[in-house]
Amino acid sequence: MNVQVCWYKKMSSENSIKSEKTPSESHAEVIVRMFPSDANPAGNVFGGEILKNIDMVAGIVAQRHSQSNAVTVSLDSVNFLKPVFVGNVLFLNARINYVHNSSMEIEVKAEAEDIVTGIRTITATAFVTFVALGKNGKPIPVPTLALKTDEDRIKFDEGKSRMERRLQNRQK
Ligand SMILES: CC(C)(COP(=O)(O)OP(=O)(O)OC[C@H]1O[C@@H](n2cnc3c(N)ncnc32)[C@H](O)[C@@H]1OP(=O)(O)O)[C@@H](O)C(=O)NCCC(=O)NCCS
C-alpha cells in the first residue's frame, strides 16, 4: 500500500507543468536514415522529406516545452545548403529559442552524415513556430523560458526580433 502511494506521488509530480523551463529541458535530437523511397531516381533526398523531419523534431521540442498538443503555424524560409543522398544519416538538432504567450520559436539544424567517410555537413537550418493548444483546440499559455546561458539570452533576443517580423508579415 505504501509503495502504491509513493508511486502515485512520483507520477503526479512528473506530470505537473512547470511555470518556467530552460531550453535544455526540451532540446531534442532525432536521427533518421534516408532510404530510396525518400529520394528522386538520382538518389537526391526530396526537400519535402527533410522538411517533414524538421517539422517532426521541432514538434517534439514544442510539446516537451508546453506539455500539450502543439501545431505548426509558421515555417520560415529554408535554404537547402548541401544535398542529402540515399544512405545518408540525417541528424536533426532542435532547441527552443523564444516563447511569447502560446507561441514558441524552435530552431532546427539538419546535418547529413556519409556513413562510409564519417563526414557530416550542415544541410539545412530552419525556424519553426508552434502554438500550444488546450483540449478545446484554443491557444494556451506555455511556460516562460529560464535563460541560463549567454547563448540562451542571445537566441531569445534574436527569436523575439524574428517573431515581431513574422507577425508583421502575417496574413489572416
Ligand atoms: C494555431 C491556431 C489555432 C491559432 O489560431 P489564431 O486565431 O491564429 O490565434 P491567435 O491569433 O490568438 O494567435 C495565437 C498565437 O499564435 C501566434 N501565431 C499565429 N499565427 C502565427 C504565424 N503565422 N506566425 C507566428 N505566430 C503566429 C500568435 O502570435 C499568437 O501567439 P501568442 O499567444 O504567443 O501571442 C490556428 O492558426 C490554427 O489552427 N492553425 C492551423 C495549424 C495547423 O493545422 N498546422 C499544421 C498542422 S500541425
Automatic annotation (TrEMBL):
InterPro entries: Cytosol_ACT, HOTDOG_ACOT, HotDog_dom_sf, Thioestr_dom. Gene3D superfamilies: Hotdog Thioesterase. One of its GO terms (biological process) is acyl-CoA metabolic process. GO terms for cellular component: cytosol. CDD domains: BFIT_BACH. It comes from the Archaea. Coiled coil: none annotated. This is Acyl-CoA esterase. One of its GO terms (molecular function) is long-chain fatty acyl-CoA hydrolase activity. The keyword Membrane does not apply. Keywords: Hydrolase. Residues 24-136 form the HotDog ACOT-type domain.
